[in-house]
Amino acid sequence: MIHPTRTNLLLLKDNALSVTNSIGILKARRQALIREFLSTTLPFLRSREDIRNTYGKAIEELALSLGHEGRNNIESITLVTKRDMGVEITERSIWGLKYRDVIAQESSVRGTDERGYDYLSTTPHLEECIYSFEKILESMLNIATFESKLKRLGAEILKTTRKIRVLEERVLPDLKHQIKTISQYIGEREREAYYRLKIFKSRSLAY
Fold first, then answer.
1. What is the pLDDT of residues 138-189, one digit of tens each?
2. Which residues contact residue 137 at a Cβ distance below 8 angstroms, ignoring those fewer than 6 apart?
3. What is the pTM of this model?
4. Element (H, E) at 160
5. Any idea what the CATH number is for the domain that residue 151 is in?
6. Does 31 reside within a domain?
């Protein structure tokens, strides 16, 4: 325990107030992060579900296309439509928490006249197949962003919760205990001084 003086008592009270304020700020930050986590989780789950549904449809249309147009024709179209997709990784921040965002430099989904082949000679099944796979690519890029963001948010929420717990269960109770102990010590010392002064006065009057 620190030396039981009024100065140290005031310092401990200031520290306790500071810790209390810090707990309030950390709880507000945690609440904001939780709200962001929940608002990000729903579109993340929707994206995964969209990919699952779209993939099933794409495979079905691919099977129909292979039956109508043949593997060789589809493989030649695949070579024509091949392209390099550029993505940009940017750093964003939420309440001081940094995470990486993935942004495609161009749309994953192209129009039929943008794919480099004569779409009038193909079947609707193939067009639907290509569209579905391009939608899957678009959703996967979105998921990459969601996963990065959710991981950072989840880790920061746990970290903030641990800080709050340490402050509430260890630091603040210890400060309050020291404040109480020093307050009692100073109170007892002041009562003793008052009692000695009272005795001194009574003896002085007797003389």
1. 888 878 878 888 888 999 999 999 999 999 999 999 999 999 998 888 878 8
2. 85, 108
3. 0.67
4. helix 124-166
5. 1.10.287.3240
6. yes
